Amino acid sequence: MANFASSKNLGNGYPTPGPQRPDIQDIMNHAYFLTDGQWKEAKENNSYDYVIIGSGFCGYAFAKRILEKDKEAKILMVERGGFLLPTHFQNLGASYKKLVGPISETFPWSLSQSTMLEKAPYRVTQHGMLPYFGGRSFLWSAWCPQPEKAQAEKWSPVLFNSLTQKNGETSYFDDAIKLLHVHKSNALPFSKNLKKLGLENNLDQLRLPEYGTLQDIIHNLFAKNKDDFNSQSVTRAKLMKVEYASLACGDGENKGIDFNKFSTPTAILNLVDSTAFPTQNVDSDTEKRRKEGNSMYPNRLHILTECVVEEILNENNQAYGLLTSRGTIALNNAELILATGTMPPATLIQKSFNHQSAGKHFTAHTISAITARVKKDKLSELTENANLQMGAIYLPFFAENGQQFHIQLSIIHDPNPNKNQELAMRYMPDVVSTASPEQLKDSENYVILVCAILGELDIHNEYASFNANKDSDATTGSLLRCNPSLKDKKTWDDMGKTTYDILDYLFDDPEYWYSDLNYYQECHVSGTDFLPERYAIQNSWVKKEERTRYPHVPAMVHEGSTLPIENNNVDSDNKKIEAVVNLDYQLINQGKPVSNLFITGASLWAQSGAWNPTLTMTAMALQLADKRISAKEKQQTTSENTESTAILELIDQSKF
């Protein structure tokens, strides 16, 4: 920022007025990130123990664990984008919902023609990346179910057990739950505290929602009828369990003061100060050593934004530098951590290593969307009050063909939608898939059930891949193909049918929302641009007979499996998933591990399963950090023993 407004020699209008058009990125650079000058110094003189590419969940989890356990470690975090939001958009208010969707996404790949030519209702695209500091963490649902062993059949049993078994008092899943501030929807901190204070009956006056009676009624209804439904399921899909949803929505300090969706930007910025070297009562030799190669002393975490990593320079299975849009940096003794999601690291590895197995597999979750409403008087236990009532329930299924899907069920009863519009948006369990103002209108006497149904794309689908193409750009040079196989199509169809069946079974003739997307799919399936009778009922509540047969949403989420980790080599399909990463999270190149290149995130998936990926990949990032700390300690011990042995040998030789 030219003539920075509060520097030592330039400020307060002296000797000139200073900048009149301040830029948010320049301000953030001076306050938190590396400025151009600091980055130049870092490239030329700094030394790091770890270089992390990415600032999302995994990058944050790895950095936090390292900095808290290794009090001497220094980290450079590189983010391709700039600063957009400080926290999850839902924490900021309803107006920020406009940021959800393509307006904020980039698509660093080419989509194949065969995918675009797939016939409705099975044509899909993939949601894009969020190229900003914090990644997708400020635009996610915050649902964090923990998978069970039965849901991870294709995964390495060794890996899965290592995440679930307690290492001391906690498991890696337990640690991830704490890190992300995850709570069950029937034990949300703000709800518990209101009950302690005896204020649960005054929620309307307090402008707070109730996660209570209504949620319990719906949960118990599903739980009580699970076995009966499974025994007569038309699609033969089986409901595995009924759980209150796990939501990353605590305040992080266990005060329970609010419903606060977790995101990484503020958490990472807090790390910069909280993990800095102490500057008081430090001996001069220690301080001198810590200052060497650290132009940002006393900070141990340095953050560089608006920097695209274009190539990993490597030789003899070792990464030795990064070619970036802001110049080249040598890694020296640093370990490189790729924490950039699923597709960017695959492209980078394909181009940097000419890797033939990266991107061979691709999985994701296909989506169906069904919204129903039932009259509140059918739920006899529902008490009359003026509260905005909400709930969130997780319902995982096994389809008849062995594939998995789950329903993210959001529940809402709003007796005053005009008054509560902002409140509802602020506290909704899944604002990406929620009741719209149009659906809430005239639904004061109803309970609305919003079902986001997510099903796994088969990892053995030969029509799904993410392969390198002829584009030389290491950030965009891949071709995404995602044509659902016959198995995938059957799963996708059964997702909608099963959801309809269980809602009909439990709620006796609910009404369904017929959307313009439903109409769009029906037109394309019919091969026409206009269906007069269906056109007239768009965006309205309809009876069972008029609901759509095609609740399929033409977009996928939760992409994964471009760099599969070592897995259950031959699964129940008797097919093999070639591992690209070993159980130490190292990239395997030409049959051997790359010594200092480690990968985390959903690119490692052996299957997408019936769960949202964030909790699992955060647990794995924490495990990776512990593995690197352990390896470093072992290396230091070996080095010290070698040095001691050498000294003893010299002493022994001096006798002659």
UniProtKB/TrEMBL annotation:
Ranges of Polar residues composition bias in the record: 1-10
The residues that cross the membrane are: none
| Required cofactor(s) | FAD
Q: Which UniProt keywords apply?
A: FAD, Flavoprotein, Oxidoreductase
**Any GO molecular function:** oxidoreductase activity
Q: Where is this region: Disordered?
A: 1-21
Q: Which Gene3D superfamilies match?
A: FAD/NAD(P)-binding domain
Q: Which family does it belong to?
A: Belongs to the GMC oxidoreductase family.
What is the protein name stated in its UniProt record? GMC family oxidoreductase
Q: Which organism is it from?
A: Chryseobacterium muglaense
